[in-house]
Design a protein that fits this description.
- The protein is an alpha+beta fold.
- The protein has three domains: 54 residues, Structural Genomics Hypothetical 15.5 Kd Protein In mrcA-pckA Intergenic Region, Chain A; 88 residues, Alpha-Beta Plaits; 79 residues, 2-Layer Sandwich (Alpha-Beta Plaits), CATH 3.30.70.
- Helix content is 20%, strand content 24%.
- It has eight helices and 17 strands.
């Protein structure tokens, strides 16, 4: 026999309390979210500090962002304020649109995707190393070094890469260790440009051979670019562009293909050019050059 159904257990069930009798009624916002319980009200947001979603880059003890940008040469204070409100400024990877944000000069700032260096303690110099000068800030053997040309500066500067004593041209000097590391590491592909005087004539297929790669005793080397700049009877000037900086790399490379270097000058490192800087002289890089270096190094 089939037992009778328990209508009380599976039928109507216990009565639910009417709205407003057994429990409090949810507020309009809670009903819109579909919740049936009350929540404590959220405190009202004050206007003392701007609301910043995601990572909080604001430092109450810092300097207003627009003031630092203006001091770095980005533009006038008003222009910098417009850049911020238009969402074109990032601090530590976070887009900042509030004018009240304060930051430290050591934080990472980009404007329209380009790095802006705000730290006034950072130094970026382009130095034209003369012949027979050692790439060292202090030489133990008493030879003339680049430190002899920069002795008046108090900062501890790094040279980006090296140049042989018998090679002249562009050396970048900075106290920005992260940038210096990336600029000289082949992994980041920052190009260096050299002008070399070599015996001529230069065969037409030399550029192709260099771009295809030449095997040296410490591994193959491939140039990024090669061209003949000038050609005269018995000699030629060629431009060699590559992204690595192994010791004597340009001299060894050209000697391997039968054109030993007579003289060698480095003219460019990434976007920075030697320009009109005379041997033994240095100049401070512009803010645009520094930004271009950061971009080339992927910072």
């Amino acid at each position: 026999m089939t037992p009778p159904k328990d209508r009380g257990a599976r039928g109507k069930g216990p009565k639910r309390p009417a709205a407003g009798r057994g429990r409090p009624t949810a507020g309009p916002q809670q009903r819109a979210r579909g919740t049936g319980t009350t929540r404590p009200s959220q405190p009202t947001q004050t206007k003392r500090e701007p609301v910043r979603p995601g990572t909080d880059v604001h430092d109450p003890d810092g300097v207003r962002l627009q003031k630092l940008l203006a001091a770095a040469g980005v533009g006038s204070r008003r222009v910098c304020e417009d850049l911020i409100t238009q969402g074109r400024v990032q601090v530590d990877g976070q887009v900042v649109t509030e004018l009240g944000v304060r930051i430290r000069p050591t934080q990472v700032v980009h404007v329209d995707g380009e790095r802006v260096q705000l730290d006034e303690s950072r130094v970026y110099l382009a130095f034209n190393k003369p012949l027979n000068v050692v790439t060292s800030m202090s030489d133990d053997l008493g030879r003339v070094d680049i430190g002899d040309y920069l002795g008046a500066r108090k900062e501890r500067l790094f040279h980006v890469g090296r140049l042989d004593a018998d090679t002249e041209g562009l050396l970048l000097l900075t106290n920005d260790g992260d940038l210096a590391h990336r600029l000289q590491h082949p992994r980041y592909g920052v190009l260096k440009t050299y002008l070399a005087q070599i015996p001529g004539p230069v065969p037409r297929d030399l550029g192709r051979r260099l771009r295809e790669g030449v095997e040296l005793e410490d591994g193959p080397v491939v140039v990024d670019s090669f061209k003949i700049v000038d050609s005269q009877p018995g000699k030629a000037i060629v431009e060699v562009v590559l992204h690595e900086g192994r010791k004597h790399i340009v001299r060894r490379l050209l000697a391997e293909v039968g054109h030993p270097v007579i003289s060698l000058v480095r003219t460019e490192v990434g976007p920075v050019r030697l320009g009109e800087t005379k041997p033994g002289k240095w100049r401070a890089l512009s803010s645009a050059e520094v930004a271009a270096l950061y971009k080339a190094a992927g910072l």
